[in-house]
């Protein structure tokens, strides 16, 4: 019997283990590059046409490269979750207690056996991967290869079954991403990291096998993703506030509800006005051309425009907190005069504070994606997608939803060309003493929109990614007039060079069209369309399951990553079964393990690890039980306050 070649053995194994890789190998029969085989039929290099990838035996190359990497490995080190920097009372209390327990005994970074991930960018022939795993033990191994052909050639060199068996023996998962597009690779990696859990990020290893523009971009995208994953998204006290604000707004105000389903595209232009430093240099261009476009003003940029005598067509707000309410009040004191409102229409998340909505004329409200208020009390209304992290992103998402496909960005800097400048001069950040300064530290250098460098941080990179995603998915023609970070998919235009052909717009006609496309509600009508009593019943069912989880799973948790995996599986299942009622609790529950992971993954010894796990179990239980009790009271009050609305809804 003829012995199967390594390529054939790999193909048979991968058909079952990694069918996507096997399928790729079967269809890649006509390749530009070729494996260089030795006398045994194994690949030792890759001929890339006029040159070779390694220029030596791949085994020797892999050995030398891995040895060099081990001397200074690329690792992700998460910053200490200082209690004062945490907004969620749950994570704040957890961090406080774990910090007190740990004292000064923590290791500087997680030891190799606590590494959550190994991300290998560039597979080539793959011989470096087993060598990497000889001395590190990640829980998850991710291989990213931009070149499909290289991955196919690896079947001639790497024993994929042996690699898989090694990962299984170490209780590690093995995933492969094949993407030439760095953003597509980032999206697939994002899905994997969500599955792994946020605590897997701390101490993760990254290894770049070969340098090309693509592998460099994928490496940068990985670090951007790490920064975004480290940003906590949602917690109970914030979700509770959004639910309360939502009910208050719809009970108090007449409004039009904007549905998140995309409206038919049209050729009208939209200005998206952010409050980045470059807005100051764009004022005259905005003044000159505002009649040719619908002006969507985002957040704190309102102060800059009003100070310049420019009234936007719509003010965009999304945040639900007292800081936003104080900012709006500050702007009104400076620019409102003797009027009762700004004389500007508002487009806002239904969850904003009542002190925001009352200062505007016509109110256009919308539901934001993923929020508890949207999931619980947004029946029959699609949420608007792409509204975070900043109000400028919200403005872009709303314009796109309303059919605008020609968009001009002003002050949407996503950072700054001057690392010392964070907002336009005439904004609340510079005129109101004690106003929260936001995300002013910008340590990351990236390409600027008009050439040269710009500086940014994880939050602004998240904002850039959302801009890029919305522009691409909606096929928007976007002109970036902001002197800040370059946004892929936009065309740089200096404000002074701006020209918009055609006649000015009939703004009143535009507003009428938006009203006609929305659904009108008088004050107090909206909740009659929502099932508050039904939400309460479903909440009680979920709360019973959550308490059972606390009784059955939490006490047995010895390792944080195992508990996080069980928690993620449980909450994901409950979300599918019970829907939006899971959201208020979910953020805080999911947010506690990664905060605990910073301390527990750095435990000096087994005893310290056990003590800190005990603290985690106690704090987790206490705060989740408090949330269960508090949320029950909240939903009972809402159901009781809208009994008449529920009866009206039942009557049709």
Overview features:
single chain, 652 residues, alpha/beta, Rossmann fold, sialyltransferase cstii, chain A, ten-stranded mixed beta sheet, 24 helices, 19 strands, 46% helix
Write up this protein.
The chain is α/β, with parallel strands linked by helices and 652 residues long. The protein folds into 3 domains: 6-72 and 112-229, Rossmann fold; 255-521, sialyltransferase cstii, chain A (Alpha-Beta Complex), CATH 3.90.1480; 530-650, no CATH class. Strands 18-17-14-9-10-11-12-13-8-19 form a 10-stranded mixed sheet, with helices on both faces. Strand 12 (345-349), helix 14 and strand 13 (363-366) form a beta-alpha-beta unit. The model has no long low-confidence stretch (mean pLDDT 93).
CATH topology of the largest domain: sialyltransferase cstii, chain A
Low-confidence region ranges? none
Report the principal-axis shape.
globular
Widest sheet: strand ordering: 18-17-14-9-10-11-12-13-8-19
Please report the first level of CATH classification, the CATH class of the largest domain.
Alpha Beta
Give the second-level CATH assignment, the architecture of the largest domain.
Alpha-Beta Complex
Query: Distance N terminus to C terminus?
Result: 76 Å
Which bin fits the share of residues in helices? 40-55%
Task: Give the secondary structure arrangement, pairings included.
Blueprint: H1 6-17, H2 19-27, E1 34-37, E2 43-47, H3 58-71, E3 74-75, H4 89-102, E4 117-121, H5 128-132, E5 140-145, H6 148-154, H7 160-169, E6 173-178, H8 182-196, E7 205-208, H9 213-229, H10 236-252, E8 255-258, E9 266-273, H11 283-289, E10 293-298, H12 301-307, E11 314-317, H13 322-335, E12 345-349, H14 354-357, E13 363-366, H15 372-377, H16 391-401, E14 404-410, H17 428-431, E15 444-447, E16 453-456, H18 458-473, E17 477-480, E18 490-492, H19 507-517, E19 519-521, H20 532-552, H21 560-578, H22 583-600, H23 606-641, H24 643-650
Parallel strand pairs: 4-5, 4-7, 5-6, 8-13, 9-10, 9-14, 10-11, 11-12, 12-13, 14-17, 17-18
Antiparallel strand pairs: 1-2, 3-7, 8-19, 15-16
Helix pairs in contact: 1-2, 4-22, 4-23, 8-9, 9-18, 10-22, 10-23, 16-18, 20-23, 21-22, 22-23
């Amino acid at each position: 019997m003829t012995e199967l070649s390594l390529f054939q053995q790999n193909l048979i194994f991968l058909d079952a283990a990694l069918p996507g890789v096997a399928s790729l190998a079967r269809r890649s029969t006509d390749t530009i590059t070729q494996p260089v085989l030795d006398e045994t039929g194994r690949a030792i290099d890759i001929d890339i046409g006029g040159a070779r990838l390694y220029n030596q035996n791949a085994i020797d190359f892999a050995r030398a490269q891995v040895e060099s990497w081990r001397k200074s490995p690329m690792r992700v080190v998460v910053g200490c979750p200082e209690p004062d920097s945490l907004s969620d009372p749950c994570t704040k209390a957890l961090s406080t207690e774990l910090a007190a327990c740990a004292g000064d005994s923590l290791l500087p970074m997680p030891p190799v056996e606590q590494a959550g991930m190994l991300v290998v960018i560039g597979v080539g022939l793959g011989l470096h991967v087993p060598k990497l795993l000889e001395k590190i033990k990640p829980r998850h191994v991710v291989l990213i290869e931009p070149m499909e052909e290289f991955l196919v050639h690896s079947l001639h060199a790497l024993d994929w079954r042996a690699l898989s068996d090694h990962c299984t023996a170490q209780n590690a998962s093995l995933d492969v991403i094949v993407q030439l597009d760095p953003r597509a690779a980032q999206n697939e990696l994002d899905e994997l990291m969500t599955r792994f859990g946020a605590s897997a990020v701390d101490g993760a290893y990254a290894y770049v096998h070969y340098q090309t523009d693509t592998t460099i971009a994928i490496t940068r995208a990985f670090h951007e993703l790490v920064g975004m994953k480290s940003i906590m998204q949602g917690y109970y006290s914030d979700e509770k506030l959004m639910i309360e604000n939502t009910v208050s707004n719809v009970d108090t105000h007449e409004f039009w509800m904007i549905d998140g389903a995309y409206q038919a595209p049209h050729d009208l232009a939209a200005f998206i006005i952010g409050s980045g430093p470059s807005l100051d240099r764009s004022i005259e261009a905005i003044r000159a051309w505002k009649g040719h476009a619908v002006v969507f003003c985002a957040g704190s940029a309102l102060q800059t425009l009003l100070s310049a005598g420019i009234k936007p067509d719509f003010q965009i707000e999304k945040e639900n907190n007292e800081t936003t309410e104080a900012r709006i009040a500050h702007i009104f004191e400076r620019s409102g005069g003797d009027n009762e409102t700004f004389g500007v229409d508002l487009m806002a998340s239904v969850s904003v504070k009542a002190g925001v909505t009352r200062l505007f004329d016509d109110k256009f409200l919308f539901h934001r994606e993923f929020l508890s208020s949207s999931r619980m009390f947004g029946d029959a209304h699609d949420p608007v997608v792409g509204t975070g992290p900043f109000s400028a992103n919200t403005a872009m998402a709303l314009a796109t939803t309303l059919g605008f496909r020609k968009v001009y960005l002003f002050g949407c800097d996503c950072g700054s060309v001057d690392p010392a400048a964070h907002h336009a001069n005439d904004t609340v950040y510079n005129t109101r003493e004690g106003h929260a300064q936001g995300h002013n530290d910008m340590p990351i250098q990236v390409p600027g929109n008009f050439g040269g460098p710009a500086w940014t941080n994880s939050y602004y990179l998240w904002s850039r990614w959302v801009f890029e995603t919305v522009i691409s998915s909606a096929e928007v023609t976007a002109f970036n007039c902001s002197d800040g970070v370059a946004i892929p998919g936009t065309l740089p235009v200096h404000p002074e060079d701006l020209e918009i052909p055609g006649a000015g717009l009939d703004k009143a006609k535009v507003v009428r069209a938006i009203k006609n496309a929305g659904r009108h509600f008088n004050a107090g009508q909206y909740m009659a369309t929502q099932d508050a009593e039904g939400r309460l019943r479903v909440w009680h069912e979920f709360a019973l399951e959550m308490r059972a989880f606390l009784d059955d799973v939490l006490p047995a948790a010895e390792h944080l990553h195992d508990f996080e995996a069980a928690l993620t599986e449980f909450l994901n299942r409950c979300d599918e079964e019970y829907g939006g009622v899971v959201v208020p609790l979910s953020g805080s529950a999911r947010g506690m393990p990664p905060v605990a992971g910073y301390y527990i993954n750095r435990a000096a010894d087994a005893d310290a690890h056990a003590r800190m796990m005990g603290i985690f179990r106690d704090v987790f239980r206490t705060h989740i039980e408090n949330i269960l009790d508090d949320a029950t009271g909240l939903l009972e009050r809402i159901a009781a306050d809208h009994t008449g609305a529920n009866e009206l809804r039942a009557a049709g």
